[in-house]
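retry 2 of 3: previous attempt timed out while embedding magnesium ion. Reduced batch size to 1 and resubmitted. Inputs unchanged:
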Amino acid sequence: MDYSQQDITYIPGVGPKRAALLGQELGIRTVDDLLRHFPYKYVDRSRFYYLHEITPDMPHIQVRGRILRFNKQGEGRNQRLTATFTDGHSSIELVWFKGLRYIEDKLRTGTEYVVFGKPSRFNGYYNIVHPEVEEAATFASSGSAGLQPFYNTTEKMKNAYLNSKALQKIIFNALQAVPRSDWPETLPTDLLAQYALPGLKDALQHVHFPPNAQVLNAARQRMKFEELFYIQLDILQQTSWRNRHVRGFVFAHIGHYFNTFYKEYLPFELTGAQKRVLREIRADVDSGRQMNRLLQGDVGSGKTLVALMAMLMAVDNGYQAAMMAPTEILATQHYESLSRMTDGLGVRIALLKGSTRPKEREVLHEQLRNGELHILIGTHALIEDTVQFHNLGLIIVDEQHRFGVEQRARLWKKNDTPPHVLVMTATPIPRTLAMTLYGDLSVSVIDELPPGRKPVHTYHYFENKRQALNGFLAKQIEAGRQVYIVYPLIQESEKMDLRNLEEGYQYMLDTFPQYKISMVHGKMKPAEKDLQMQRFAAGETQIMVATTVIEVGVNVPNASVMVIENAERFGLSQLHQLRGRVGRGAEQSYCILLTGYKLASDTRRRIDIMTRTNDGFEIAEADLRLRGPGDLDGTAQSGLPFELKIADLAQDGRLLEIARQAAMTLLEADPTLQQPAHAMLAARLRKMRNKAFNWSAIS
Ligand code: ADP
Ligand code: MG
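retry 2 succeeded.
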């Protein structure tokens, strides 16, 4: 029988109430779920201190001794219990504010205890508030000695006394209750041997109760490997399935639109990288398979043009194409620049926005259905809208590195045959993350900027340089350039941020009465935003005060200065994106990072990287290292097929590559996991997919 799938209710110390709570709060329902709730840290509890060794900066201490006396003070809710605790030489106080009755019941004077907790100093005397207390006699066998695991819990759990310590006990009981033979291995034995990984039962035992650091490390490696291995198995299996079953549209020839555009309309020579990427795309769309390609190219590398030319390939072969942008500003800008570039060519391009009137929308829908329209540009509304295409052959997703499985599945609903997909991003995705998020995507890189571009010069100024900065801005504007001033806008303190922005706008008005100033932020009506952007793009205003709504894609080549206010509040990739708004013309451009005087150490590092390099890939790697993948643009994790519980993409890149290789080798030998030795893999993968919802089934 498979013990791991048993309900946790029956584990000693759980019961129906706690089982319900664990299910609700952490999604823990089976023994397997429980044992895969891994500790987030470990504290060394092999060491005992003497009380006289305590210093106030110790995060935790562990001492052995006896309680001399109890003392209860206060009334009702304000009651507190203190115990004078001694190790025979000196004494400290143990303090409780909650659960007094339980403590009074449990603890006795005279018994030897092991006490663990964070010491603090009060009135010249050390105390520990809500310490962990265990009888010394049973301490060694209770699983508490050695490296103590710490588990994430929630507020609700803590209120029900289900804290980290209680979880540890439950996990201890669960492990005790399992006969070794009832514990199914979740990795093929030959893989375990090949990579010298411990078996599952040992690994789980040691992840939760490590006898020493070395064994713990081996156990963690094994659990991480397993996690990454299954993700790769999932991705690679779906790719291979798609390659075998999904046909793609064939764009067999290059025709009138592409050729005419290339020969007569192109305002400049394509860069070598652009040409190479176009050839890669051309090979994909001619292959009979569906293209799933990620196009990475640093800001300003000319991705839009590649997108346009790929769309012309679709149109030449009688298909429609769509282009999706993350914001309305950007969609509008794409629409305008593509319309301008193709003016007279005869391709029919339309823009669909959230604010498009119902009447216009109806006409648009009709023209899409009957095939009159060739190219549709819009925001995500494109795939959410009731839009039906006559024959959508290609979809381009611009500046969106979280275009995951879910959205792709939604696209497929628009057609019987899935359209070719080209995802473009300027935020280079570090290799490890790309492998996990987009394991099934081919990757193209534009690694060359159009000629004549000068790298942006980046400087870090403190507030005291503002006068000098104003002088510099005036000089640039006098020379005919334009300037962005960007303010942070983050959800939690939107009101305050908006005030900052408006004050900043007022400050610019006061400082530069001779210039015209635009302002754009997320709370504005789309039409107003568009108008402000257009005025700036047309050169009618010299200064653009904005939030990060202008972060991606906006292209005003004449703008040469990007000032980022409160730069400490931006992430690295955001800073890099913002900087990419300048340096798009032939003039030397500048990026000024303004910060307060006090900087946290990783803020310092972010600023240093920005002033040191313009290389998007280097910045993306640094970002991954500094922030960890879970945090990449907030929800990068949500693009993963399964949640990572123990592996860390920032740190486990090497392991990810090994796991990927192992999954590849295994699938080459057994693509559908039909061999008896792989039955367990197939079953587990099925279970995981069901839990995560099987989007691939929608095709
Ligand atoms: P991104 O890759 O950031 O989306 P864009 O596509 O917006 O970059 O291109 C940035 C600018 O470079 C645009 O003004 C575009 O017209 C110009 N551009 C693109 N390709 C070339 C080229 N081969 N030579 C010169 N300028 C180019
Ligand atoms: Mg772009």
